[in-house]
Design goal:
This protein is an alpha+beta fold and 82 residues long. The protein has one helix and five strands; from the N terminus they run βββββα.
């Protein structure tokens, strides 16, 4: 079975199936990508493969946005995407 190459670019949101989270692409290499939680935090690397990464669903994006709003409200600052 031949795997399809993922088209990823810096700043895109993806779903990391290993960590079970939505992540922002920070850097794209030949075979790996650097990812970070959209709300910030420590970066991690993942192999650039559809076995591990895929586009997030609308539901997953909504969950990530709700997490951001909840985080912001606990710090009493900003909103999603600001």
């Amino acid at each position: 079975m031949v795997e399809e190459e993922l088209e990823l670019e810096q700043g895109a949101l993806v779903y990391d199936m290993v960590r079970d989270v939505v992540a922002r692409v920070m850097e794209v290499g030949d075979s790996r990508v650097s990812l970070r939680n959209p709300n910030g935090g420590v970066e991690w690397e993942r192999e650039k493969s559809p076995r591990y990464l895929r586009p997030p669903t609308q539901s997953e994006l909504l969950s990530a946005r709700v997490a951001k709003v909840n985080q912001d409200s606990s710090y009493n600052s900003g909103s999603w995407g600001a």
